[in-house]
């Protein structure tokens, strides 16, 4: 067995050509020993695999007279254990709770996102083939395929998270890998308020909206925090209600006792067997849902979602990629057109306006922080245009030292939806007793 001594890794050893060469040869030796063990190896526990790797690397170093000290040998054994039992160089990043995204551009270039800020990362993949082996190991148990005929894959990671990979001939400089990690313990609304994502007044309005079965769309850009907000909002759904979730790749982690989760399925090798989110939306209506939550609206499923919101499934929620509440509505109209909506533009806008109650717009600031930048109510159709009223708005100013001074302003408007009639009356009474208007929940 390898034992740690007073010696340490030689300066620059990790990542050097010598290190990569020794590691590659030790890996080949280790794989041959795994083949000798046979099928029994797959049934071993983690500690037994670790002991096996340590002893075999020790034997390899002695047999081949490899000129490295015991600490360097132990370091190689640890890395090979990750190769055999985990995700190789990605293991430490996957275990780092501060890492939100891992972005790989070929085997030489790795970036991570922490708190919304991108940082370069020093990782050591031997070559593109090494990186591709790790991707294949991730997707193999999921039944997904990645080769020249199917050079793109989107998959849900067993430990929580999402992987997207693109390889040649589409990726020109080596495999492109994007890994989105999800918290094991998702943020609640109190956490988001504490982190400054929104104000206490805004959180209370959203709580009332969800509990009173308002239909809510969460709009924002990539990695702006839409899924985190959706998880937090879902915690306000009463425990007596049945929630059905529909996603392309499962990301939601709802704190609710009765959740029926569904995920779309790509076509098989023969091009058949695809089940898309529109199919799942249609089927969900037969599953006795109290509320339907769509992870992301980006296709023909928009029509079924609007119909569900208009026909008794109040309190449903979804996310959509858009840069503002108005752009969010334009995107819904565009998706409905792609879905083959045959009615007039006015009838579509009336259907959207009657289905939606609130749009929660989320954005990412220059410093990487995620904020709810507005809460907007959909109040009807006026002059063939969907009418919106902004109830809260986020503003910030940048100081000379680059620091941002943030604040939210309430418009002093009361929500018009009949679903919040009781809240509207309570707020009107409170506001009339104060010397200033605005939100006083």
From TrEMBL:
<feature type="domain" description="Bacterial type II secretion system protein E">
    <location>
        <begin position="86"/>
        <end position="363"/>
    </location>
</feature>
<dbReference type="InterPro" id="IPR050921">
    <property type="entry name" value="T4SS_GSP_E_ATPase"/>
</dbReference>
<comment type="similarity">
    <text>Belongs to the GSP E family.</text>
</comment>
<dbReference type="InterPro" id="IPR001482">
    <property type="entry name" value="T2SS/T4SS_dom"/>
</dbReference>
<dbReference type="InterPro" id="IPR027417">
    <property type="entry name" value="P-loop_NTPase"/>
</dbReference>
<dbReference type="Pfam" id="PF00437">
    <property type="entry name" value="T2SSE"/>
</dbReference>
<protein>
    <submittedName>
        <fullName>CpaF family protein</fullName>
    </submittedName>
</protein>
């Amino acid at each position: 067995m390898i034992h740690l001594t007073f010696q340490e890794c030689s300066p620059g050893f990790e990542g050097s050509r010598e290190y990569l060469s020794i590691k590659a040869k030790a890996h080949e030796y280790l794989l041959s020993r795994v083949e000798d063990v046979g099928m029994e190896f797959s049934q071993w526990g983690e500690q037994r695999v670790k002991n096996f790797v340590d002893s075999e690397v020790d034997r390899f170093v002695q047999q081949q007279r490899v000129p490295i000290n015991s600490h360097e040998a132990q370091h190689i054994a640890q890395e090979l254990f990750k190769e055999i039992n985990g995700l190789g160089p990605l293991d430490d990043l996957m275990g780092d709770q501060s890492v939100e995204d891992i972005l790989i551009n070929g085997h030489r270039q790795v970036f991570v996102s922490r708190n919304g800020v991108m940082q370069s990362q020093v990782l050591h993949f031997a070559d593109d083939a090494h990186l591709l082996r790790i991707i294949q190991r991730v997707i193999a148990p999921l039944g997904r395929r990645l080769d020249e005929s199917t050079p793109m894959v989107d998959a849900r990671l067993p430990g929580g998270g999402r992987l997207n990979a693109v390889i040649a001939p589409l990726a020109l400089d080596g495999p492109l890998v994007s890994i989105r990690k999800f918290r094991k313990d998702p943020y609640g609304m109190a956490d988001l308020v504490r982190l400054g994502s929104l104000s206490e007044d805004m959180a209370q309005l959203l709580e009332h909206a969800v509990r009173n079965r308002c239909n809510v769309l969460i709009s924002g850009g990539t990695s702006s925090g839409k899924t985190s907000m959706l998880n937090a909002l879902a915690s306000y759904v009463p425990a007596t209600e049945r929630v059905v979730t529909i996603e392309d790749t499962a990301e939601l982690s709802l704190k609710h006792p009765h959740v029926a989760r569904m995920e779309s399925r790509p076509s098989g090798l023969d091009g058949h067997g695809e089940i898309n989110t529109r199919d799942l939306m249609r089927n969900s209506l037969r599953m006795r849902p109290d509320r339907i939550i769509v992870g992301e609206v980006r296709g023909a499923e928009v029509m079924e979602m609007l119909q569900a919101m208009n026909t008794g499934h109040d309190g449903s929620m979804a996310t959509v990629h858009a840069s503002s509440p108005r752009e969010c509505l334009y995107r819904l109209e565009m998706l409905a057109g792609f879905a083959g909506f045959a009615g007039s533009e006015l009838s579509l806008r009336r259907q959207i306006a009657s289905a939606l109650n609130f749009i929660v717009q989320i954005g990412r600031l220059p410093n990487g922080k995620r904020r709810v930048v507005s809460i907007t109510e959909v109040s009807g159709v006026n002059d063939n245009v969907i009418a919106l009223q902004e109830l809260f708005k986020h503003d910030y100013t940048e100081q000379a030292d680059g620091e941002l001074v943030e604040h939210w302003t309430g418009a002093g408007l009361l929500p018009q939806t009949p679903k919040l009639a009781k809240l509207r009356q309570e707020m009107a009474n409170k506001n009339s007793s104060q010397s200033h208007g605005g939100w006083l929940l």
